[in-house]
Design goal:
By secondary structure, this protein is mainly beta. The chain has one domain (11-146): SH3 type barrels (Roll). It contains one helix and ten strands. The strands form two sheets. Strands 1, 2, 3, 4, 5, 6, 7 and 10 form an eight-stranded antiparallel sheet that branches. β2 and β3 (43-50) form a beta hairpin. Mean pLDDT is 84; it is low at 129-154.
């Protein structure tokens, strides 16, 4: 597992969190989203994704709806864990697979903006106005896309 290209902001990759991390840090290989700009440093900032919904949804969580990105399709929603921002070496990263083949997948602009807002919320910065998720009784509103029809995936 290692990439030999400069990942772009918003690119979905796989990250191997099994090497030299200490509990309660992540200990598995999982999808992530690159949030740093392209840099020739051999590393980038990534935010992990999870199929396990948070027990208490916070502003630093964001739900990517199912069926939007083929490489994330697993029959359930995928959650951004904005509070688990990680500095990752390119040696930990690889492209995700779609239909058994490596793919180059980038988030739609509206989803990338929501991921960045989740990271900002995690470090205590104010974030853009949020809209309630499908659960109107939730105590915390989560930033979620209202209208995907005007954006296009790459």
């Amino acid at each position: 597992m290692s990439i030999n290209f400069l990942p772009k902001r918003g690119q979905i990759l796989m990250c191997d969190y099994t090497k030299k991390f200490i509990e309660p840090e992540m200990q598995k290989v999982r999808h992530c989203v690159v949030v740093s700009p392209e840099r020739r440093t051999g590393s980038c900032l990534v935010v992990p994704l999870s199929t396990v919904p948070p027990q208490n949804v916070q502003l630093y969580h964001y739900k990517i709806p199912r069926g939007v990105y083929l490489c994330l399709e697993c029959g359930t929603d995928v959650w951004v864990k904005g509070d688990m921002l990680t500095h990752a070496s390119f040696a930990r990263l690889d492209r995700p697979k779609e239909n058994g083949r490596f793919a180059s997948v980038h988030l739609r602009t509206v989803h990338l903006e929501a991921v960045v807002n989740a990271v900002l919320a995690a470090i205590g910065y104010p974030v853009k106005a949020a809209t309630p998720m499908s659960n109107p009784g939730a105590k915390v509103d989560v930033i979620e896309n209202k209208d995907d029809s005007k954006t296009h995936g790459k």
